[in-house]
Amino acid sequence: MGEAKEKILIIYHSQSGNTRKMAEAVAEGVKGAGSIPVLKLAGDADLTDLLDADALIIGTPEYFGYMAGMVKDFFDRIYERGLKEQKLFRKPYSLFVSAGNDGTGAKNSVERICIGLRLKKVQEVIISKGSPNESVLMALREMGMAVALGVKEGIF
Question: CA 86, CA 70: separation in Å to the nearest integer?
Fold first, then answer.
C-alpha cells in the first residue's frame, strides 16, 4: 500500500481534557485507516488547514447549551473566504460533543453553521456526557476510521 494521501483535519477545543481525549481517539481511527490525522486546537486552525484537508471532524465541549467559543471563532474566521472557495463545497464533516447537559444545543449550532458553509455531514454526532468511557472512545476511533475510509474510497 502506498503512502497515505488523505488528510483528515480534526479541530477541537478542550479545557477539562475530555474533548482532547475524544479528539485523540478520532485521530487514532484516522491513522488506523492509513490516512493522516491533522489534530489542531480550534484557535490554531485556519482556512488553509481546512482547504488542505480532505475532510473535517469537529470536537467541541458543550457550554451553556452551545459550542465552545473557540470553535465558533474558527468558523467566524473562515466564513467569508470559505464560502468563496469552491473546495469547501460538500467537503465531508462529522462532529463529536463532550456534553455537560445533553449536547443537543452544541450539536445543532455546529450543524447549522456547517450547512451554511455547504459542508456535507457524513456521520451522526457522537455525544459523550462527562468523561468519555471506553465505549465512547471506541465509537470515536470508528468515526475517524469511517471518515478516512469514506474519503479514501471516494464514498464522500
Answer: 25
DSSP 154: T
CATH number at residue 108: 3.40.50.360
Q: Average the pLDDT over 87-108 and give the result.
A: 92
**β-strand partners of 37:** 8
The one-character DSSP state at 121 is E
7-40 pLDDT tens trace: 999 999 999 999 999 999 999 999 999 999 999 9
With residue 131 as reference, give the H or E element that holds it: none
- Per the DSSP assignment, residues forming a β-bridge with 120 are 92
**Amino acid residing at 82:** G
Which residue type sits at 86? Q
**Chain length of the chain:** 156
> Phi, psi (5° rounding) for residue 132?
-65, 130
Give how many domains the chain has, as a whole number: 1
For residue 101, is it within any domain?
Answer: yes
Q: Is residue 1 part of a domain?
A: no
Please report the beta strands in the chain, taking only residues with DSSP state E, as ranges in sequence order: 7-12, 36-41, 55-63, 66-67, 92-99, 120-121, 126-129
Range of the domain at 37: 7-152
Full-model pTM: 0.94
